[in-house]
Amino acid sequence: MFKHVEPFPGDPILTLNEQFGADPRPNKVNLSIGVYLNDAGKMPAMRAVLAAETALAADLGTRPYLPMEGNAAYRKAVGALTFGDAVPAERIAVAQTLGGSGALKVGGDFIARYFPQATVWVSDPTWDNHHSIFMGCGLKVKKYRYFDAATGLVDFMGMLSALEAMPAGDVVLLHACCHNPTGADLDAQQWREVAALVKRRGLLPFFDMAYQGFGKGVDEDAFPIRHFAAEGIPLFTATSFSKNFSLYGERCGSLSVVCADAQQADNVLGQLKATIRRNYSNPPTHGARIIARVLGDDALCADWRAELEGMRLRVATMRQNLYAALRDRMPDGNFEYLVRQTGMFSYTGLTPEEVASMRAESAVYLVGSGRLCIAALTDATIAPTADAMARVLK
Ligand code: PMP
Question: How far is the CA of 328 from the centre of ligand 1 (A)?
Fold first, then answer.
């Protein structure tokens, strides 16, 4: 029966991670997968998360199914965290989802049903799974100009002319902050220009915010979403709490849709529920209970924000330190991009061959595209990473 089923080649990033696990070299450095590690090279368990979980453990109760749209307290808190007071809550349909990936999938299914003619435009490059998820929803996916390899920053003029040429009603996927894989973000003024263009051209923005708090700060990173919403632009937002709560495996995310009025938001939420029912019926309980408790308690929320700010600053320090280490080794090299990009990743411009050589000769693992996870660097791994990069670049 299954003779025609071809082998799965594996996900490029997850496969690299498996290779890293099997690599016997003791000095190996994994900068491929997108996770935040602390100074000790460990994935943190955040203080507020542990406190909330300990309190919950004393009062677990039963575990009935959640409603299709998820935990009500979680949905309310997530709406407030994402939108601040940019738009009244009754105009936003918020559904709890299985991580940010689940939000993209539920949003993609909704678009395929209600905007079947729309093409989804994603930045070139983008997180590979954007292509797979939206194509899996039966949608057409195309790329828009985004990255300028010469500067390591956004090709803003190229992006504007690409947006200008998109047919009205098409969906444009925008990384709210900490662009994955490049680390190249728009500034506030550029976001205002994009918002004006999107509004004038009648495009439908779909924000992906997987790294809130790792760019400029929790509220600063939500600026584009809040600005678009305040401008009266209907939009989708996929939020992930995998990184900023360090709760990867709990699969916590949400899909928010900003609508023109409360009636539309009600209808949209109803159809999101129908989409969720068709996919997996309802989301899991545990992670949402933790996050609702942290965000709903002033002291826990303040502690979460403080710890996240520390994580953000640690990543910024790692950027500076890698930059300095590379300048020491190659004073004529151009590594400015490292300190001008933001978030957990940098696009180094290293070729697939150079990346392969770093892996083979130095046991330093980057993604083949040249993406380096700054958030996985530690004081101990800066020097070997800089050595490996300098060796292939010299
Ligand atoms: N969007 C982007 C840009 C991401 O980088 C990721 C995670 N790597 C996701 C969405 C998915 O997040 P999650 O792991 O919560 O599904």
Answer: 34
Give the residue carrying structure tokens 């520390």: 310
- Asked about 216 being catalytic, the answer comes back as no
Catalytic hit among 105, 109, 121, 127? 127
Helix axes 188-201, 156-164, angle to 10 degrees: 10
Q: What is the ipTM of this complex?
A: 0.99
Nearest-angstrom CA–CA distance, 44 and 48: 11
Distance CA(251)–CA(45), nearest Å, equals 15
CA distance 302 to 48: 9
**For the segment 93-118, what is each residue's pLDDT rounded down to a tens digit?**
999 999 999 999 999 999 999 999 99
Closest ligand 1 atom, residue 34 Cα = 8
Q: Phi and psi at residue 347, in whole multiples of 5°?
A: -95, 115
Q: How many whole angstroms separate alpha carbon 208 and alpha carbon 185?
A: 13
Contact (CB, 8 A) for 215 and 191? no
Instruction: Give the single-character DSSP code of 7.
Output: P
Structure tokens at 277: 């029912």
Q: What is the DSSP string of 285-304?
A: SHHHHHHHHHHTSHHHHHHH
- pTM for this predicted structure: 0.96
Does 202 have pLDDT greater than 90? yes
* Protein residues whose CB sits closer than 6 Å to any atom of ligand 1: 34, 99-101, 127, 175, 180, 208, 210, 240, 242, 253
C-alpha distance from residue 61 to each of 70, 72, 155, 191, 286 (Å): 17, 17, 53, 45, 12
| Secondary structure class of 260 (helix, strand, coil) | coil
Contact 174, 206 (CB under 8 A): yes
